[in-house]
Structure formats: C-alpha cells, structure tokens
Amino acid sequence: MLELARSGISEGIWLRAERQTGGRGRQGRLWVSPVGNFYGSSIVRVRVGDPAPATLALVAAVALEEVVRTYLPLNHQGESAGGPRGAGLALKWPNDLLLGGAKISGILLERTGDAVVVGIGVNLAHHPKDTDRVATSLAAHGATPDPTDFAETLAETFARWLGIWRGQGLAPIRTRWLERAHPIGTALTARLPDGSATDGLFHGLDSDGALILRLADGTARVIHAGDVFLL
Question: To the nearest whole percent, how much of the chain has pLDDT over 90?
Fold first, then answer.
C-alpha cells in the first residue's frame, strides 16, 4: 500500500490479504497472519485543514469497534465505558481493541508524502496463544464473520467516520472513543519510547487525542507516544 500511495492511488482504496507472510505490528513486532482473519489497509490523503494525521488512529479505532460490535452475540458485548473492567469490548490507547480484556485487533499508521496508510488486523477466526499479551478472536466469542463481508462493512464504516473527522474535526471522534474505552480510573502502565515506564489511572484524552494519566501524587501526565497496558 505504501508503494501504491507513492504511485498516486486515490483515497479510499482498500487492499486486503487472505494471509500475510510478513505481517507486522507497531515497532516492527511480528503479526501472525493465518487464513480466516482480516488483514487490510486503506489510504487517506491528508488535506489542508484536516485534523492531525496521527489522530486517524482514533478514527480507525471507533470505526473498528462499531463493526466488531455488530458481529458479536448480544451476550458477549458486555458493558461499554463505565462497566466492569474486562467486560465486553473496550478501546485502549493508542491503537488496540480489547474483548474481555484480551487483544482482538491492532491498528498501524504509516505515512508517505500526503498519504497515510491505515493498516488494520483483526482476529476473526484465530488468535495466537503464546504472545506476551493475552489475545482472543471473534470465533472464541461465538461469531464467525466472513473476512470479505467484514472488509466491506469496515470500509463503509471507516469512510463515514473519516467524513466526520474531516467535516467536524476531532471532537466527535474523541467523544465516541471515550464512550467506548475502558472506564475512567482504570489502572494503566505506559512504556515510553525512552525505555521508562509510568503507572497511573486513565483520566481520558486531551483535545489532541493524547492519553492523560492521573499519577499517584495527584498530578496528570500527558502521554503522546508509548505502549499502554492494563494493570
């Protein structure tokens, strides 16, 4: 998709793989990609007046949460924000969707020129058993969507949320993200790019989409980059 972006391909095009032999996540992590899951990428062309390109991760997250929720049996959807920790679907900053506290998907943004490639992987039929983060799949929760149908639904939903982001700004995306995130007060640890770690309680997102942690001394720290884990 990066090569297609450099060639001038239009915004809104999606490329989907049945499986990947070189799948990767954030910071070059291995992403195992068996047949039956969803692996897809789309291109957004950044325009003058658009919100910050990095916030497309929030756009992708709210679109993905909406789509995954439609495929889950009602008894597996659980609570949204404000519900018990680990119940149902919950967004986790910066780019994860959790189901029952386990990772079910990942989102990766990469940029070349005015194009942002939004890559999304979702465990539909399979999930890894031996990773450092507990993972799950839709199949493990009683849903078996066809990857092609899932791709079509996600493309439509992402396009709608992209239009909101572009037409109304980040605010409605941020509001939706917070509604679908784990509850305020959830204990988190953030591993930062410099190798340090910070523990705190989830205190929302700032106006630019950065993570706010409430620290033990009562102060707030804004996290712009890092890996975040539930404690």
Answer: 74
